């Protein structure tokens, strides 16, 4: 430190901590005339960096964290009482008080700085931003040889008592998959504010937190602020800058008539966009991190601006609070990032209180590696000993999770107390009283006490409620309210599974509104690639698949108190499998409650499955009268005329009959005979015109003709348009307003009807009369939320939906329902040995559910596009359980991956299902898995099977997707896989088959149907990239379905997301969220680039990949011996006839041996991929050699 005297000479002391002593009042002086109370001159003190740091630390220790040194302007502009106070102690006419930092050049070396020194100084600067002391940063960096990541982890461990990460730890595949899913969800929420700094190691989220920045910004004093508010004529005149002040030699101080303001270019200011308000939340995952299943990440909050005024101690306090929250989330095995961001953005008081809290961090005067390191080593030693004990004693992971929860039990109880207090305050508000008044009108409210009493005294409860009773929103809420009203004792976590994503989000949003909470607080949801829960969440809605994924990592569901399984009557494969797991889990956990909810009266089946003594509670529905209009009634009311040559007519026997002959049949069809009376078991499409006339003798001749000609297997879009116009036309016996809900099989039909409606001007948005809302599970969350948008009274809402709106979603203003009677179901094709999505008739239970949607708010109308005879005589009573109509391959793989069934016999496990499959089906599925390479001869999962099990597609499609990523033909394989899973884009017409075949032959390539589809798709994509009109014209000319092509593009992107989520494709790939991408636009080549598609045009490789993926679904064409026939030019080979060809499978052939050899080599690579999920197969040396050799073999002739 140096002091500058009046003469201007500088005196440098070797001791940086030297401070010039000032005279004390009791000291004698040579000047006898100076009084005891004398003024001192305000002088300039020059401090070295370390000395200034020590003084600031001491002042903050005395006065608190908010203390900061005043700026020079506060002394220059002092007025009023402050000026008087200063004049009593200082002479202000010569000099001013300043504290500046200077370089002590006397102590600097003349040697040039080395690169290592520059790097270390840069690392210290970065570590200093987190709030760590400079001396500690330097000390730790030296101990880790300059490794910034290791230094940061060591400092976090020593400052916040965290266990040091194991440098040799291996990454858990499940944990990495969960992190990738969370990353996709965060990216879709925060968009450009989220970035991946280091792949799978460091995430960063930019947050605008003005409340935090303003809390620590420089605040002017009250006197100066009040004075500044007064108008002054002098303040308007700008003073001339003082040239002596710029040189540091002005002796007049604040009395100087020139300006002492620094020039604008030398002032330290932030950017004009208020960068001081922006902060960066960093989430770091050490090597081998088991987040989010077992441990928390390293989190920290740092200001984005390097000129931020936030003290270092405050940054550490906030980081400490964030780490505590992250540890609580880790105890519940739930993601924490969304919770941390929500807390920083919404809980201002909590963050400020944590920032101003006590600072119990290492002192800068002490060595950071002296005592604390040994303690940390000791802690790691204890952890290692615990791990050894666990292995020796054979204890389950459950006990360790219980220990982790016990550590945070006190914090959880504190959070519970806060939630209980908020609940008590909430129920006193006017808004709560209005919601309770609304809820009390639901039928479920009248059963509230009975429900709570039954759930308390039984482990399993069955609830049957008709449509509109409020069971989905109220039953979980009754349990939560009862717990909060009792003071929130103990642990409470209610998990409610829903069959679809939109139902999980919609019900969570509704319940959160009724609690006056935001989604993600007390009530949240979890769906695939999106999580919206926090440490405060006590009621979470999730899809059945998400709950099954959680069971893979937490087989005992520790911490979960209630599981509500909604819509169990749908009998999906996942829901039946979940019931099997819950039945096994109830035998191990006596504290677990299971509530089953169904909308149909099939409760006895589920009660018998859980022991027979399960209580059943029936809740009546709040449905209004619904008028049923069947197909024959609609045809009669609308006077619809079906043209004989329409695309919706069925193929009749004797199709060559003329129109006159048909008219003749109509004239004589009224003649009744005993033989003409139709049997009730015969469907309408198999009746003659005379039999149709007898069955529907109460209807007009035109209606009978329409029923005779109409093809019931086709969806008549013209008739749907007529039905919409009919319900929107005023009639005395139907309502005048209300939305229209139309049930269609899939998104292809939704798109086709949407385009059909827009062809008419009355349905276009410019007419402002109708609001069209597509509803499908593949739509984005934002698009699905349009369902609940309120419209003006003169605008009619028309919802085009799949069966997703049957039970999962409630449309509050729905009055009309138009039911096509069709839905898409997964079915296993024995001939193809593949699953297909087929359009089938709904069951009577499904039709009743759809009909009930029209009577939710007032009397409605349900229009069925099938006859009453079909409904009563030919529709199934209940839907076929999915477990009986799909392949069991995914069920077997899931069973083998779940820790709960590890070591159990597969057949005994599957035999415990509510309606078990046959032994033949299980044996066939095991044999297919063995031939596919997913299980070995002993029935154990292979590495290929483990990776395929993480993809929610058929096992053969999963292999095809994996091989496409491995052999760098990703885009081509995605196209072929999408076509195999959906449908071919080629249009097949019965009346114009020759033209369709000719158009298809134009794309024939490599003697492969799949590669032919690939070529057609690629050419359409090239035309579509030029312009949409060019793409439409190309599809029309080449006889391709534009809707199918657009849907294939969307399916390809979904498959790519699945590959990214399991780590087979670069996780840093920036896949846009659904809300920010255009449907039907293929962006796969742009996303994947040349690296993943360099073999996309190698047709021999593509054919080999198809053969390997679809094996053993491969046949060999055996031709007859070659023979010759004479001709004018000599003997020529005879072309074999079709009946001479023989087709045999290749099992046991050389091709099978080659595929098995390739599979063995790939198995080694995939096993390495399991051990190291972050492994890049494109850069893995051993894997790259094997893959290149395989490509070379299969590419040869």
TrEMBL record:
Residues 719-899 form the Helicase C-terminal domain. The keyword Repressor does not apply. Residues 1-11 have a biased composition (Low complexity). A zinc finger (C3H1-type) spans 236-263. Residues 23-34 have a biased composition (Basic and acidic residues). Belongs to the DEAD box helicase family. DEAH subfamily. Residues 181-351 form the RWD domain. The keyword Secreted does not apply. Residues 1-34 are annotated as: Disordered. It holds the Pfam family DEAD. SUPFAM superfamilies: CCCH zinc finger, P-loop containing nucleoside triphosphate hydrolases. This is RNA helicase. Residues 452-619 form the Helicase ATP-binding domain. One of its GO terms (molecular function) is RNA helicase activity. CDD domains: RWD_DHX57, SF2_C_RHA. Transmembrane segments: none annotated. It comes from Laodelphax striatellus. Residues 236-263 form the C3H1-type domain. Its EC number is 3.6.4.13.
């Amino acid at each position: 430190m140096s002091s500058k005297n009046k003469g201007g000479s500088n005196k440098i002391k070797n001791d940086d901590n030297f401070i010039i002593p000032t005279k004390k009042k009791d000291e004698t002086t040579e000047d006898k005339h100076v009084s005891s109370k004398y003024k001192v001159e305000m002088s300039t003190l020059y401090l070295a960096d370390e000395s200034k740091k020590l003084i600031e630390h001491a002042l903050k220790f005395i006065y608190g964290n908010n203390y900061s040194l005043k700026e020079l302007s506060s002394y220059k502009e002092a007025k009023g009482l402050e000026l008087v106070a200063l004049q009593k102690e200082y002479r202000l006419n010569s000099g001013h008080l300043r504290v500046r930092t200077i370089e002590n050049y006397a102590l600097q070396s003349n040697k040039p700085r080395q690169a290592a020194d520059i790097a270390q100084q840069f690392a210290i600067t970065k570590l200093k931003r987190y709030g760590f002391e400079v001396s500690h940063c330097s000390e730790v960096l030296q101990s880790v040889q300059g490794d910034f990541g290791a230094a940061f982890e060591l400092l976090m461990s020593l400052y916040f008592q965290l266990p040091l990460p194991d440098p040799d730890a291996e990454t858990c595949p499940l944990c990495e998959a969960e992190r990738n899913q969370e990353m996709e969800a965060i990216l879709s929420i925060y968009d450009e504010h989220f970035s991946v700094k280091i792949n799978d190691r460091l995430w960063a989220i930019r947050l605008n937190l003005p409340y935090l920045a303003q809390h620590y910004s420089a605040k002017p004093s009250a006197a100066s602020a009040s004075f500044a508010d007064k108008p002054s004529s002098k303040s308007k005149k700008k003073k001339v800058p003082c040239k002596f002040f710029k040189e540091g030699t002005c002796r007049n101080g604040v009395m100087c008539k020139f300006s002492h303001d620094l020039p604008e270019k030398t002032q330290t200011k932030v950017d004009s966009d208020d960068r001081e308000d922006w902060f960066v939340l960093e989430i770091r995952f050490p090597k081998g991190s088991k987040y989010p299943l077992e441990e928390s990440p390293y989190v920290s909050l740092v200001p984005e601006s390097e000129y931020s005024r936030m003290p270092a101690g405050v940054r550490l306090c906030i980081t400490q609070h964030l780490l505590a929250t992250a540890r609580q989330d880790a105890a519940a095995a739930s993601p924490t990032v969304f919770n941390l961001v929500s807390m920083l953005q919404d809980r201002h008081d909590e963050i400020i209180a944590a920032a101003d809290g006590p600072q119990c961090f290492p002192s800068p005067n002490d060595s950071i590696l002296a005592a604390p390191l040994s303690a940390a080593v000791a802690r790691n030693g204890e952890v290692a000993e615990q791990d050894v004990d666990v292995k020796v004693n054979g204890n389950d992971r459950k006990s360790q999770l219980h220990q982790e929860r016990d550590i945070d039990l006190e914090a959880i109880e504190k959070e519970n107390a806060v939630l209980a207090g908020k609940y008590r305050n909430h129920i006193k508000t006017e808004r709560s009283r209005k919601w309770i008044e609304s809820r009390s009108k639901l039928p479920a409210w009248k059963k509230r006490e009975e429900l709570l009493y039954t759930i308390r005294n039984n482990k399993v409860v069955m609830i049957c409620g008709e449509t509109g009773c409020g069971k989905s929103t109220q039953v979980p809420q009754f349990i939560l309210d009862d717990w909060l009203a009792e003071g929130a004792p103990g642990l409470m976590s209610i998990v409610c599974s829903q069959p679809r994503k939109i139902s999980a989000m919609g019900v969570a949003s509704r319940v959160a509104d009724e609690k006056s909470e935001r989604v993600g607080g007390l009530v949240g949801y979890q769906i695939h690639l999106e999580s919206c829960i926090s440490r405060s969440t006590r009621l979470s809605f999730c899809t059945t698949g998400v709950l099954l994924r959680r069971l893979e990592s937490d087989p005992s569901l520790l911490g979960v108190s209630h599981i509500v399984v909604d819509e169990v009557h749908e009998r999906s494969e996942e829901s039946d499998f979940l019931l099997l797991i819950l039945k096994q889990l109830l035998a191990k956990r006596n504290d677990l409650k299971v509530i089953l909810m169904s909308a149909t009266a099939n409760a006895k089946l589920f009660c018998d499955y859980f022991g027979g003594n399960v209580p059943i509670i029936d809740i009546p529905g709040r449905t209004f009268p619904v008028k049923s209009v069947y197909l024959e009634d609609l045809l009669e009311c609308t006077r619809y005329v079906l043209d004989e040559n329409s695309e919706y007519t069925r193929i009749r026997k004797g199709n060559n009959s003329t129109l006159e002959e048909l008219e003749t049949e109509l004239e004589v069809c009224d003649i009744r005979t005993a033989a003409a009376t139709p049997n009730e078991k015969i469907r309408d499409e198999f009746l003659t015109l005379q039999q149709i006339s007898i069955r529907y003798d109460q209807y007009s001749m035109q209606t009978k003709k329409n029923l005779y000609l109409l093809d019931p297997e086709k969806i008549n879009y013209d008739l749907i348009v007529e039905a919409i116009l009919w319900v929107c036309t005023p009639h005395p016996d139907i309502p005048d307003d209300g939305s229209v809900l139309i049930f269609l099989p899939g998104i292809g039909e939704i798109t086709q009807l949407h385009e059909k409606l827009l062809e008419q001007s009355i349905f276009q948005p410019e007419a402002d009369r109708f609001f069209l809302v597509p509803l499908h599970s593949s739509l984005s969350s934002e698009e699905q939320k349009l369902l609940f948008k309120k419209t003006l009274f003169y605008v009619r809402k028309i919802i085009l939906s799949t069966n997703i709106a049957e039970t999962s979603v409630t449309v509050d203003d729905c009055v009309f329902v138009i039911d096509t009677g069709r839905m898409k179901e997964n079915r296993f094709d024995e001939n193809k040995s593949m699953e297909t999505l087929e359009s089938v008739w709904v069951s009577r239970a499904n039709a009743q559910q759809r009909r009930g949607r029209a009577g939710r708010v007032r009397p409605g109308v349900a229009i069925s596009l099938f006859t009453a005879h079909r409904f009563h005589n030919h529709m199934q009573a209940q839907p076929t359980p999915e477990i009986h109509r799909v392949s069991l391959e995914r069920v077997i793989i899931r069973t083998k991956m779940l820790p709960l069934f590890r070591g159990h016999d597969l057949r005994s496990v599957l035999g415990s299902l509510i309606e078990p499959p046959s032994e033949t089906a299980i044996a066939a599925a095991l044999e297919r898995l063995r031939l596919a390479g997913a299980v070995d001869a002993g029935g154990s999962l292979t590495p290929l099977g483990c990776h395929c099990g993480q993809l929610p597609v058929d096992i053969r499609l999963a292999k095809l997707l994996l091989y496409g990523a491995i052999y760098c033909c990703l885009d081509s394989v995605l196209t072929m896989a999408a076509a195999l899973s959906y449908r071919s884009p080629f249009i097949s017409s019965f009346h114009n088959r020759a033209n369709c075949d000719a158009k298809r032959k134009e794309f024939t390539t490599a003697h492969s149907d799949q590669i032919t589809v690939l070529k057609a798709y690629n050419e359409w994509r090239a035309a579509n990239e030029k312009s949409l009109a060019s793409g439409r014209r190309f599809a029309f000319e080449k006889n391709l379905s534009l809707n199918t092509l657009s849907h294939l593009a969307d399916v390809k992107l979904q498959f790519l997301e699945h590959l990214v989520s399991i780590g087979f494709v670069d996780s840093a790939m920036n896949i846009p969220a659904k809300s920010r991408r255009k449907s039907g636009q293929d962006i796969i080549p742009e996303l994947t680039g040349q690296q993943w598609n360099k073999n996309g045009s190698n047709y021999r490789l593509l054919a080999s990949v198809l053969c390997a993926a679809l094996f053993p679904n491969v046949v060999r064409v055996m031709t007859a011996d070659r023979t010759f026939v004479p001709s004018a030019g000599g003997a020529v080979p005879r072309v074999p006839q079709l009946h001479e060809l023989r087709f045999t499978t290749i099992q046991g052939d050389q091709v099978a041996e080659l595929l098995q050899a390739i599979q063995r080599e790939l198995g080694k690579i995939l096993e390495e991929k399991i051990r190291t999920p972050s492994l890049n197969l494109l850069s893995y040396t051993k894997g790259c050699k094997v893959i290149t050799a395989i490509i070379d073999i299969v590419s040869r002739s």
